[in-house]
Design goal:
By secondary structure, the protein is of the alpha/beta class. It contains nine helices and nine strands. Helix 6 runs parallel beside helix 7.
Length: 228
């Protein structure tokens, strides 16, 4: 199946999942995860109408951005080391995986030095798996409020990854946990800018949409298998 057919199929599934729970499909952003794919592959998906792409390695983002159209909205979704911030802040409109207070402080300070207020999502480990990054759900509210209180950082919402399982109940529980945390935090800080829930990938995005996701991160579902 080609990339155009992949996109049609994914958009149809997003629409169907949204309609099942009474949501407007337009509330869900399709984010094409282009990590490791070359510029030519990204341009082929761009030519099919996609304008939002994501990278997970700082140098890869830095190198690709100048080679592609200026109207692309770039997201950074991978773990971020503080010494790589300089590659990400000038290029990413949204940083998805802020997983520590240390990283949030570094982003705020670097952004301030460059006259940029970075927009971020706070990563929450809703499954409790040790190998995953992010704040544990039990500590998430206090951590998000602490980061939100920092000067020069724009906390737009939350992000999570579901557990690696075929158990749809466990996947749905992970996403619903994030949504409940979002509602609790939004009631304290307001919903004016705090509007995003980044959850759902190629294997589980329909469940994520049903549980309130506003951004689904689709890589192989659009591009096909990665070559490395």
């Amino acid at each position: 199946m080609g990339r155009q057919e992949n996109l049609v199929r994914i958009r149809e599934k997003i629409e169907q999942a949204a309609r099942r729970v009474g949501r407007n499909p337009d509330e869900v952003k399709l984010l094409a995860v282009s990590k490791v794919f070359p510029v030519a592959d990204i341009k082929s998906v761009y030519d099919l109408g996609v304008r939002s792409f994501a990278e997970s390695k700082a140098q890869e983002l830095r190198d690709k951005v100048p080679l592609l159209p200026e109207d692309i909205e770039w997201h950074f979704i991978g773990p971020l080391q503080t010494n790589k911030i300089k590659y990400v802040i000038p290029n990413a409109q949204l940083i998805h995986a802020v997983d520590s207070l240390k990283l949030a402080v570094a982003l705020a300070e670097y952004g301030k030095s460059r006259g940029i207020k970075p927009a971020v999502l706070i990563e929450i480990n809703t499954s409790g798996e040790k190998e995953k990054h992010g704040f544990l759900a039990g500590h998430a509210i206090d951590s998000v409020l602490e980061i939100n209180a920092l000067d020069n950082i724009d906390v737009r919402g939350l992000m999570t990854m579901a557990p690696y399982t075929e158990d749809t109940y466990q996947i749905g529980k992970s996403f619903s946990t994030l949504y409940k945390l979002y509602e609790s935090i939004a009631s304290q800080i307001g919903k004016d800018n705090f509007t995003e829930l980044s959850m759902g990938m190629s294997s589980d995005f329909e469940i994520a949409v049903e549980e309130g996701s506003t951004i689904v991160r689709i890589g192989t579902g659009i591009f096909g298998p990665r070559r490395r």
